[in-house]
């Protein structure tokens, strides 16, 4: 039964956690896995990092005392600490961009039961001279459909908190950890903290802006490649050109952005080649290289990356002499001599 005796309620809460720690840890794992599967429906959102933990008992009690105890005792309202601890199980989602926060929040609210939500971003923006990390906090439990399923039924009465932040917001929260509860600090220091928080916020928005500009450039490049070769031909090869041209010859292959970037840089170091010349070298020489690939079958495997390298070498041995390793050049040249 609830009471106004803090020590009694404190011990009751400690006993509850001790008696149910295995259940809580299993629930933590289950909720975390569920959220990962929900985010997996989106390629961008699946890149988010999901971590979880069962909060320490004393940490929960201290938070209860700080936020609720005085008011409850002043109102002479009996309580159980457990009813006010919605983050005993906590899940943190660290996503790429600010816009992902609301997207993730919507997915969770659509698939789980929302108890309460706190938009840290709005709270901070509405308050002058306030510093801290932004993000979205959701208090959740299983929805009516899942809490009847055998794998979830045992967890149907357990609440959990989800914190959703960007990478930048998460970094700020770590740096801000030592000062976030210190409201009565000197004005000069507060201004410096607010300036730093503003820089983090600017970085967050700039990352997303750069991402949008990159996607626009990629789209423009694709349209040019498909509709206007002459205009495109004057441009020096870049990663967007490479990717779109390569996809024409290897439509089923997934090219790694990191590997493309490294290969384009390597190509340009050997010769400052235009997109048109690059495509011409691939188009004119890839048939021969594919014949060589068939010849090597069972001995060596040529990936799309090495096929492109061989095509460049075959079409411009002097310019792209070092695009292949020595043993690759010798083996390829020997085969070419026999043709």
Describe the protein.
The longest helix has 41 residues. The protein has 339 residues and is of the alpha+beta class. Helix content is 58%, strand content 10%. The protein has 2 domains: 199 residues, Beta Polymerase, domain 2, CATH 3.30.460; 109 residues, no CATH class. It contains 12 helices and 5 strands.
Strand order of the largest sheet: 1-2-5-4-3
Question: What series of H and E elements makes up the topology?
Answer: HEHEHEHEEHHHHHHHH
Look up the CATH topology of the largest domain: Beta Polymerase, domain 2
CATH top level label of the largest domain: Alpha Beta
Amino- and carboxy-terminal Cα gap: 91 Å
Comma- or semicolon-separated keywords:
single chain, alpha+beta, 2 domains, 5-stranded mixed β-sheet, 12 helices, elongated
How is the secondary structure organized here?
Layout: H1 6-39, E1 49-54, H2 57-74, E2 89-95, H3 98-111, E3 113-119, H4 120-125, E4 136-141, E5 160-166, H5 167-175, H6 187-227, H7 229-232, H8 239-249, H9 257-270, H10 275-296, H11 304-315, H12 326-337
Parallel strand pairs: 2-5
Antiparallel strand pairs: 1-2, 3-4, 4-5
Helix pairs in contact: 1-2, 5-6, 6-8, 10-11
């Amino acid at each position: 039964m609830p009471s106004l005796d803090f020590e009694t309620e404190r011990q009751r809460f400690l006993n509850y956690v001790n008696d149910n720690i295995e259940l809580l840890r299993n629930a933590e794992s289950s909720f975390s896995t569920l959220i990962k599967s929900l985010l997996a429906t989106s390629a961008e959102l699946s890149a988010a990092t999901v971590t979880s933990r069962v909060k320490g008992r004393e940490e929960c009690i201290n938070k209860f005392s700080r936020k609720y105890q005085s008011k409850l005792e002043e109102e002479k309202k009996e309580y159980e600490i457990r009813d006010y601890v919605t983050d005993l199980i906590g899940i943190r989602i660290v996503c790429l961009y600010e816009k992902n926060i609301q997207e993730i929040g919507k997915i969770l609210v659509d698939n789980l039961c929302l108890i309460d939500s706190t938009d840290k971003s709005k709270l901070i923006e509405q308050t002058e001279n306030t510093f801290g990390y932004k993000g979205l906090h959701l208090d959740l439990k299983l929805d009516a459909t899942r809490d009847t399923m055998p794998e979830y039924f045992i967890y149907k009465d357990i609440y959990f908190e989800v914190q959703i932040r960007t990478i930048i917001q998460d970094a700020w929260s770590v740096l801000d950890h030592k000062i976030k509860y210190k409201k009565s600090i000197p004005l000069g220091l507060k201004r410096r903290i607010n300036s730093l928080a503003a820089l983090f916020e600017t970085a967050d928005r700039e990352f997303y802006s750069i991402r949008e500009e990159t996607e626009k450039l990629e789209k423009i490049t694709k349209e040019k490649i498909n509709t206007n070769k002459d205009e495109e031909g004057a441009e020096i090869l870049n990663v967007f050109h490479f990717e779109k041209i390569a996809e024409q010859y290897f439509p089923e292959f997934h090219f790694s952005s990191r590997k493309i970037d490294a290969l384009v840089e390597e190509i340009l170091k050997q010769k400052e080649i235009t997109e048109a010349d690059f495509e011409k070298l691939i188009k004119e020489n890839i048939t021969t290289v594919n014949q060589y690939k068939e010849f090597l079958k069972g001995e060596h495997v040529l990936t799309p990356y090495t096929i492109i390298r061989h095509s460049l070498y075959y079409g411009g041995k002097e310019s792209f002499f070092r695009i292949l390793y020595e043993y690759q050049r010798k083996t390829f040249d020997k085969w070419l001599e026999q043709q």
